[in-house]
Amino acid sequence: MIAPGSELSVARQAKLLGISRSSVYYRPRPESQEELDLLKRLDELFTENPMYGSRRLQQMLKREGVLVGRRRIRRLMKKLGLWAVGPKPDTSKPHPEHKVYPYLLRGLTIERPNHVWATDITYIRMRHGFLYLCAILDWATRKVLAWRLSNTLTTDFCTAALTEALARYGTPEIFNTDQGSQFTSAEFTDVLKAHGIQISMDGRGCCHDNIFVERLWWTVKHEWVYLRPCENGIEQKQSLAECFDWYNRRRPHQSLNWQTPDETYFGARDNAQPQAA
């Protein structure tokens, strides 16, 4: 965002953007290859075993000859935005100042587009680094409505994905998330409230509350990302654009009677519209 050759000084540009001058010159130290390799392996293990916490992941790595302390595994899991879907102690809580909403999907039959949307964040690895991916999913049809990449676990890229989905596809009745601080923040929930959308949040330790987003991450990683490693963020963004085009338009789902998400989403929505007299 900062333009060094601009007529405005760097200090003035930083002030206008609301950031500190020192942050303009900050360059994060790149991860070591050993750290990147460990992050990649943790991501693979967790994608296969989302119930596992740091203790079991430590033992799985130990069986592979990788000796890592639990404190380091917990630190890396936090960096990846991962936590086990099983029950957790009271030390794992949402942001204390953010409201947590009840889970509204238990026992609910969801069979039509725009009834329930859901979202989550996952880690996307590259050859020399990683990014975070947020996607908005239509629950009934599995269609990915919008997505964004970021190099930090902030709220803005999640809100950007939500805003795009609302602009392109209208409003759902219910929006379901986990209790992560990005989704319990006022920045995110205020957008939902402004559109009259009911807010639903997974229960703590409930492993199936957001199961379809977890399945999406498995598909994206195993059927695309792991097979097409990218060098940098530009390549990764282009690759994921191709991935979600393939996923929505060309990948049939057994659960959708072997239709694609696009065929199910647009077909059901069009059939629900009243016929002209």
Short description:
With 277 residues, the protein is an alpha/beta fold.
Account of the 3D structure:
By secondary structure, the chain is α/β, with parallel strands linked by helices. The protein is built from eleven helices and five strands. The chain has a five-stranded mixed beta sheet, sandwiched between helices. A hairpin with a 2-residue loop joins strand 1 (116-126) and strand 2 (129-138). The chain is globular and about 55 Å long.
Write the layout of secondary structure elements.
Blueprint (H helix, E strand, L loop, with lengths): L9 H8 L3 H5 L7 H16 L5 H10 L6 H11 L35 E11 L2 E10 L5 E7 L5 H14 L4 E4 L3 H4 L1 H9 L3 E4 L9 H13 L9 H17 L11 H12 L5
Parallel strand pairs: 1-4, 4-5
Antiparallel strand pairs: 1-2, 2-3
Helix pairs in contact: 4-5
CATH architecture group name of the largest domain: 2-Layer Sandwich
Mean pLDDT over all positions: 82
Briefly, what CATH class of the largest domain? Alpha Beta
Give the % helix: 40-55%
What is the C-alpha radius of gyration, as a whole number of Å?
20 Å
Task: Indicate how many domains the architecture comprises.
Answer: 2
Which structural class should the secondary elements be placed in?
A: alpha/beta
Please give the number of β-strands.
5
Q: What is the name of the CATH superfamily of the largest domain?
A: Ribonuclease H-like superfamily/Ribonuclease H
Q: What separation lies between the terminal Cα atoms? A: 54 Å
Sequence of strands across the biggest β-sheet? 3-2-1-4-5
Gross morphology: globular
The CATH topology annotation of the largest domain reads as Nucleotidyltransferase, domain 5
Stretches with pLDDT under 50, minimum 5 residues: 22-28, 85-93
Number of H/I helices: 11
How would a textbook summarize the main sheet? 5 strands, mixed
Portion in strands? 5-15%
Name the helix and strand elements from N-terminus to C-terminus, one letter apiece: HHHHHEEEHEHHEHHH
